[in-house]
What we know:
This protein is mostly helical. It is built from eleven helices and five strands. Strand 3 and strand 4 form a beta hairpin.
Amino acid sequence: MKKRTPPRRTDTGLDAIQRLMARAVMRPLTSGQRSQRAWVDGSPSAEIAGSFIKPNDRLSSFERLQIYNQQYWWRILGSFQEDFRGVCAVLGERRFDHLAVAYLEAHGSTSWSLRNLGQLLPAFLENHHALTAPHTALALDMARVEWARIVAFDDPALPPLDPATLARKTPATIRLRLQPYLTLLALAHPVDALLRKLRQSSAETGTASNAVGASPRRRRPVVLRANALPDPIHLAIHRVDLSVYFKRLDLEAFTLLTALNAGASLEGACASAFAKSSASAGEASAKVREWFATWTELGWLAKG
Length: 304
């Protein structure tokens, strides 16, 4: 894909002005929370601002532009931190702010909804270990769960499966769909327990807030740490009645659901789930019946 040439100050027309304005507004702030004085080519940013913004009797063109530049970053950084408070607690606020700016420079908002802002964060962390070391593995697990929580909250739901429709089918021909809002994750750290700790801390101090701005944060810092577990945990992130929940799964149940989600038949998914299990055929059958009763009640299974 050919890279587009950024607009020059001499460009005319509404499209050029809009692109120049967007570029100016989305430029990162300085460490002092102000607009950068130098433009990307080294020329004064004040000259760029003056080329498309008029001053008034109180503010220069640059000062007027700075208002939009600050509000853009304060709003977007505030939203990003609220979505990934767990990652922030792992890294600390200063390092998280550095990570957030680096991520947003690489993957700025391209959607009308801030909901989608962090969708690429897990992939970004996998390729930028220096931003999270020495807590890279924990930060990555946390980011995966926190993004899955966003998906669980507002991704669409398909009509639930009616088990009666399967009565005349054989397991070899049955293929089931999982709800789009359901995410299955294998994790090296007990992220669900850490997020409960974070939520309880916020409730106790009354600090949960969506407010953003330049004023110092008043939230008492919470530090989250955990060593990798001897064996991974298998977590389902889902919703019930507009509330998000975490549910730990047995390895066999996790494997079965993962196989179904990949398109395997019910017979094939069950075979995968118990391929290395010591459970007898009767025990395996009883487990599957119990799991499906729970999953049906939770609405995880959708019509194909």
